[in-house]
């Protein structure tokens, strides 16, 4: 059974239907890249999977449990699926270490000592063991994003959703974050990532999803999607990308 | 005719200024506590609570403080309740202060970036946990300067209570003027005392704002 099963999902904002019936199954340990033009609904899809937006129709199952809109179910869902945002969204009033400790302590009621040990391990894992006491505004964008990854990992999710996590970074900081993601992928983490890094998608992902006007327009392994695009929309999209 | 030295005048005014200070403190602390309770409703999930506080704020911000004082003083009298001036003054000022503080604080809570809500939600936190550990700690920092700044308005607001007969600094000014026939000296001193009370507050509000802007966190 798929870890994440998205079936006929529809989502509208007011009169605009942004997702027009999405079907997508993500297997355990699979790394899926989502590409597509601005406004094609990529972020909305990820946000629906994390329960940040409520779907209007269809169903989303994570590890066999249906996504239902109430506090208890949402919390259970979010323990299974973590999310990393374009703007990092670290808590600015807490040190890096405290950022990673907080949700463990208040959501999982982990004792402070264990939460700290976990935080140190996770920061180590993203190469920031020495920044435990640094505050977010003392860190570079790339470092902040790695802390955000450590924070999500500390909750031991089954899958991570990444929404353009390198788009807010200076070019020279992109690779340090992608390297961390690559390692996660190698460790078997299930990843759904919206990205504009076509080269990265090609190298690391098992499947690539091309979204167009609220639909999954093409889907397949990266060699096929990048090497042999079948629809004119995808060809046009890829043609507009600088480096493939 | 008796003569008054400058010291006589000043001494009487300073004695009355104690009541200005007491009334300001009571109004600010009382209004702050009530404001917190109202804030809890205002940003809470219950629609009825939000609407109630909105109405409350509009009522107290949309009418002059003087009318509120009159209503507290004379209005309750109509029901046969004998309200002493100090009680009416304290009550009206507490309600008035709360109406302004709750709006200042709501703005501060809403100024916290929406990404903070989403990030904490995606980590599994519930509404109360988000508020307590993520949103309020950031909002409080933003709230300190305008809150201290507003205390100046409270101090100045107490002057109106002289009209319902509460003897604080302004009322004492009138009384002393009637005895000395030296309005310029007396009200000049009254103004100076108000300034001495208010200036440190507004100055510290400015300094706090600058400080909190520079160091955006606690170490
Ligand atoms: N909260 C919202 N309210 C109204 N419309 C929204 C909202 N969020 C997204 N939209 C609209 O939904 C459409 C899809 O948005 P979405 O953010 O999912 O696109 P995207 O594929 O992530 O684009 P980008 O590459 O620019 O991030 C857009 O037209 C956007 O304007
Ligand atoms: Mg997007």
TrEMBL record, chain A:
All residue ranges annotated as the ABC transporter domain in the record: 4-238
MF-aspect GO terms: ABC-type amino acid transporter activity; ATP binding; ATP hydrolysis activity
UniProt membrane topology term: Peripheral membrane protein
Subcellular location, principal: membrane
Gene3D superfamilies noted in UniProt: P-loop containing nucleotide triphosphate hydrolases
Cellular component annotations (GO), alphabetically ordered: plasma membrane
Cell location: Cell membrane
Alphabetized InterPro entries for the sequence: AAA+_ATPase (IPR003593), ABC_ATPase_HisP-typ (IPR030679), ABC_transporter-like_ATP-bd (IPR003439), ABC_transporter-like_CS (IPR017871), MetN_ABC_transporter-like (IPR050086), P-loop_NTPase (IPR027417)
Keywords on record: Amino-acid transport, ATP-binding, Cell membrane, Membrane, Nucleotide-binding, Plasmid, Transport
Highest taxon, organism lineage: Bacteria
Coiled coil: none
Family, per entry: Belongs to the ABC transporter superfamily.
Name of the protein this chain belongs to: Glutamine ABC transporter ATP-binding component
Source organism of this protein record: Azospirillum baldaniorum
């Amino acid at each position: 059974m798929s870890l994440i099963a998205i079936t006929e999902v529809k989502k509208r904002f007011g009169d605009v239907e942004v997702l027009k019936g999405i079907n997508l199954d993500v297997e355990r340990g699979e790394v899926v890249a989502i590409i597509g033009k601005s406004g094609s609904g990529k972020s909305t899809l990820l946000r629906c999977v994390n329960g940040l937006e409520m779907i209007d129709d269809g169903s989303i199952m994570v590890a066999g449990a249906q996504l239902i809109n109430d506090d208890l179910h949402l919390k259970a869902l979010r323990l299974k699926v973590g999310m990393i945002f374009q703007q990092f969204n670290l808590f600015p009033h807490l040190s890096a270490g405290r950022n990673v400790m907080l949700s463990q302590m208040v959501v999982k009621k982990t004792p402070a000592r264990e939460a700290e040990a976990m935080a140190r391990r996770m920061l180590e894992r993203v190469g920031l063991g020495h920044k435990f006491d640094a505050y977010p505004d003392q860190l570079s964008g790339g470092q902040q994003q790695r802390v955000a990854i450590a924070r999500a990992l500390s909750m031991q999710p089954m899958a991570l959703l990444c929404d353009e996590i390198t788009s807010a970074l200076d070019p020279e900081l992109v690779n340090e974050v992608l390297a961390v993601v690559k390692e996660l992928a190698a460790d078997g983490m299930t990843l759904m990532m919206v990205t504009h890094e076509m080269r990265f998608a090609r190298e690391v992902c098992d499947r690539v999803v091309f979204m167009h006007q609220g639909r999954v327009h093409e889907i397949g392994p990266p060699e096929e999607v990048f090497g042999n695009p079948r629809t004119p929309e995808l060809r046009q999209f890829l043609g507009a990308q600088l480096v493939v | 005719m008796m003569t008054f030295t400058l010291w006589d005048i000043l001494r009487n005014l300073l004695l009355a200024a104690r009541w200005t200070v007491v009334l300001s403190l009571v109004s600010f602390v009382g209004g702050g506590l009530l404001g917190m309770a109202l804030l809890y409703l205002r940003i809470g999930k219950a629609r009825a609570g939000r609407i109630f506080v909105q109405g409350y704020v509009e009522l107290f911000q949309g009418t002059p403080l003087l009318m509120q004082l009159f209503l507290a003083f004379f209005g309750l009298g109509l029901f046969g309740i004998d309200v002493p001036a100090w009680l009416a003054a304290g009550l009206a000022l507490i309600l008035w202060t709360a109406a302004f503080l709750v709006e200042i604080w709501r703005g501060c809570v809403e100024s916290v970036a929406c990404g903070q809500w989403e990030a904490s939600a995606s980590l599994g936190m519930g509404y109360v946990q988000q508020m307590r550990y993520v949103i309020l700690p950031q909002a409080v920092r933003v709230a300190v300067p305008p809150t201290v700044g507003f205390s100046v308005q409270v101090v100045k607001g107490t002057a109106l209570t002289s009209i319902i007969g509460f003897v604080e600094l302004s009322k004492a000014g009138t009384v002393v003027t009637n005895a000395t026939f030296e309005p310029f000296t007396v009200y000049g001193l009254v103004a100076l005392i108000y300034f001495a009370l208010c200036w440190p507050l507004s100055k510290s509000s400015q300094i706090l704002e600058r400080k909190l802007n520079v160091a955006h966190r606690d170490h």
